């Protein structure tokens, strides 16, 4: 696999990988570093990548492992959800009003905080399904778990999110 | 879609029973109609959309390819470093081999020395016939004794010379005492 093929087959997943890493690190800088490291690892083993069945699942799986490693080493930063807002790029929508943008940012912060409270498996399953739109089968491949586990985790994650979102929407706090 | 159906679909969603198509429908209604859907669901969809807009920075690709390039250039350095590391081990192996060779050659030498001694002993012990051995021994002894006898004449002369010298010096010593 040469540069162009690498761009076409691997680099296209960089944003998904970035978001996945971001959900763990809560820091855009750290998330980018993780994706850089993972891409570098993939580049170094590019000649063996043709044997990989699902490159997207492989990329996401490596990103998750790398993010978990970093979190272990850094002993998990807590309560850093606000960092995303600081680091976050401006929403580049010309359609939404400033109020809508502000509202979306607030929702994003709330979401990240709640997702951050989820157990690791639930978090991963939720993000892959909700944000990246992965099928259950792709989630199984990425996380190396069976279908039942995926379904159970998605159910639990949604239940938790429903409860927390309800509290925020009703009382303005969790 | 009717609000009641939408509500049911939302319930199905929270229960984790919706498929991808139904979830897409729900997202669409959450962004457009909103009626029939709970506030928490709308907030969740809104947050998900906001999160899905998070992307890597504009310079991400350049940074990555620069890193690849740096690694490639640094790759030679790494190879040399690896080579240097292996050289260390190779040198150690050569030293060990040399020591082994030296020990081996010393052992070989000492073995061949022993073999020579054994061979000499065997040579001396080649006579199985006692008479022949006796003859050979006699011949060897005669050879030695003939050489000894050759020295007898000069020794006698030396003895005479010594006696003469002693007699002269003895008389001189007597004269001195007088």
Shape of chain B: rod-shaped
**Which stretches of chain B are poorly predicted, pLDDT < 50 over at least 5 residues?**
none
Relative helix content of chain B: over 70%
Biggest sheet layout of chain A: none
- The H/E string of chain A reads HHHHHHHHH
Biggest chain contact: A-B, 45 and 30 residues
- The number of distinct helices of chain A, counting runs of at least 4 residues, comes to 9
Q: Quick check: average pLDDT of chain A? A: 81
Structural class of chain B: mainly alpha
Please state the overall shape of chain A, judged from the principal axes of the Cα atoms. globular
Strand content of chain A: under 5%
For the termini of chain B, the CA-CA separation is 166 Å
In short:
The complex is a heterodimer of chains A (174) and B (178). Chain A is mainly α.
Task: Describe, in plain words, how this protein is organized in 3D.
The complex is a heterodimer of chains A (174) and B (178). With 174 residues, chain A is an all-alpha fold. In chain A, 73% of the residues lie in helices and 0% in strands. Chain B is built from 6 helices and no strands. Chain B is rod-shaped, with a radius of gyration of 57 Å. Chains A and B meet through helix 2, helix 3, helix 6 and helix 9 of A and helix 3 and helix 4 of B.
């Amino acid at each position: 696999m040469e540069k162009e093929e690498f761009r076409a087959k691997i680099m296209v997943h960089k944003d998904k990988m970035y978001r996945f890493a971001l959900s763990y690190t809560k820091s855009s800088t750290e998330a980018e570093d993780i994706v850089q490291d993972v891409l570098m690892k993939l580049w170094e083993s590019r000649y063996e990548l043709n044997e990989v069945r699902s490159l997207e699942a492989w990329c996401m799986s490596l990103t998750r492992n790398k993010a978990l490693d970093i979190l272990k080493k850094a002993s998990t930063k807590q309560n850093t959800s606000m960092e995303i807002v600081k680091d976050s790029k401006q929403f580049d929508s010309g359609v939404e009003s400033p109020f809508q943008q502000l509202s979306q940012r607030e929702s994003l912060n709330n979401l990240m905080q709640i997702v951050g409270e989820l157990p690791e498996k639930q978090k991963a399953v939720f993000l892959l399904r909700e944000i990246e739109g992965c099928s259950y089968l792709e989630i199984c491949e990425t996380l190396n778990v069976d279908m039942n586990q995926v379904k159970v985790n998605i159910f639990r994650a949604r239940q938790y999110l429903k409860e927390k979102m309800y509290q925020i929407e009703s009382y303005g706090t969790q | 879609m009717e609000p009641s159906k939408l509500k049911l679909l939302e319930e199905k969603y929270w229960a984790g029973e919706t498929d991808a198509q139904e979830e897409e429908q729900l997202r669409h209604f959450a962004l457009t109609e909103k009626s029939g859907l709970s506030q928490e669901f709308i907030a969740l969809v809104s947050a998900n959309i906001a999160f899905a807009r998070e992307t890597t920075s504009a310079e991400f690709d350049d940074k990555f390819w620069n890193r690849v390039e740096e690694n490639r250039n640094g790759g030679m350095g790494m190879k040399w470093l690896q080579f240097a590391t292996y050289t260390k081990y190779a040198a150690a192996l050569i030293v060990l081999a040399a020591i082994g060779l030296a020990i081996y050659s010393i052992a070989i030498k000492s073995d061949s020395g022993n073999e020579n001694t054994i061979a000499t002993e065997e040579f001396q012990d080649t006579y199985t016939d006692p008479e022949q051995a006796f003859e050979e021994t006699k011949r060897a002894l005669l050879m030695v004794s003939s050489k000894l006898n050759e020295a007898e004449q000069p020794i006698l002369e030396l003895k005479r010379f010594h006696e003469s010298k002693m007699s002269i010096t003895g008389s001189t010593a007597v004269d001195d005492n007088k």
